[in-house]
Amino acid sequence: MAETLLSVEGLKVHFPIRSALLRRQIGTVRAVDGVDLTVARGETLAVVGESGCGKTTTGKAILRLVEATEGAIRLGGEDIARHDARRLAPFRRRMQIIFQDPHASLNPRLSVGAILAAPFEIHGIGDKSDHADRVAALLKTVGLPPEAARRYPHEFSGGQRQRIGIARALALSPELIIGDEPVSALDVSIQAQIINLLARLRAELGLSFLFISHNLAVVSHIADRVAVMYLGRVVETASREELFFDARHPYTQALLSAVPEPVVPQAGPGGRRQRQVLTGDVPNPARPPSGCGFHPRCPHAMAVCAQVTPTPRAVSPTHSVACHLVDA
């Protein structure tokens, strides 16, 4: 077993709802409501689910870009969930993020060279005389020429801008990179280039990735394991092969049925996957349903589903499911 780099236990992120007049708290949005995750060194864990399920908030909470309401975030065995800014600084060098929008995440007023040199200046690495060499090395790593340092973000295509974002994430030689849907804003052909680049960097640099996505076709190419989220909770975690060939949770099965068949090998009777269309909408995280959060939309819901929140149960050493059907 590979050494665990990141361990998240009981992570919750709740946002207060306040009245417009007196600013009193009148409710709570349970964006993340008890997430457990682990990422081994050199592994890519994909976190998938519908928009609004809490994927991005989970990633930002791990990076301490938003504060966790409850839970532990252990990097290399040390819980950083309550570290102050001084104690957190060395851990920030070990974790970086690639944002979803390669245009909005780069400062349009700074040259690419200044953007890539900023991490060195903030963390006091080297001096200005060698920053240019470091920036040129980063650009070469992501397949861009050294002269790109003199240009500005708007002068590049979307794929090139995302390469700049990846270079910035690599600047401090991190151990863990969180990719917040890093290819969703790109054309399909460019997506393939960025996925191949991330795979090459992982192999060459020994990086670990937490890859946030709603695109299972992309996940099938890059992930070692997959965690499926619904309404702020992880409902199924499995190796890539187990998830695509033997999904157990009804929500995961519905997600897989929506993927074009040539991408996903699992199929229904007669060699074709049975399409599962979910009814209703994702519940409001400010008023989540009792019991299993998926039961109002689940075609297999039982009485116990509305009463008891299921806990994850291992169905194999690398596969766990939070569903009462597994116990039925």
SSE arrangement:
Blueprint: E1 4-18, E2 25-40, E3 44-48, H1 55-62, E4 70-75, E5 78-79, H2 85-92, E6 95-98, H3 112-122, H4 128-141, H5 158-170, E7 176-180, H6 188-205, E8 208-213, H7 216-222, E9 225-230, E10 233-239, H8 240-245, H9 250-257, E11 313-316, E12 319-321
Parallel strand pairs: 3-8, 3-9, 6-7, 7-8
Antiparallel strand pairs: 1-2, 1-4, 4-5, 9-10, 10-12, 11-12
Structural notes for this entry:
There is one protein chain. By secondary structure, the protein is α/β, with parallel strands linked by helices. Helices cover 28% and strands 24% of the residues. The chain has 9 helices and 12 strands. It has helices at residues 55-62, 85-92, 112-122, 128-141, 158-170, 188-205, 216-222, 240-245, 250-257, and strands at 4-18, 25-40, 44-48, 70-75, 78-79, 95-98, 176-180, 208-213, 225-230, 233-239, 313-316, 319-321. The strands form 2 sheets. Strands 6-7-8-3-9-10-12-11 form an 8-stranded mixed β-sheet, sandwiched between helices.
Count of individual helical segments: 9
Kindly state the mean pLDDT as a whole number? 92
Q: Rg, please?
A: 21 Å
Oligomer kind: single chain
Distance between the termini: 31 Å
Q: How many individual β-strands?
A: 12
How would you summarize what this structure contains?
By secondary structure, the protein is an alpha/beta fold.
List keywords for this structure.
328 residues; alpha/beta; eight-stranded mixed β-sheet; four-stranded antiparallel β-sheet; 24% strand
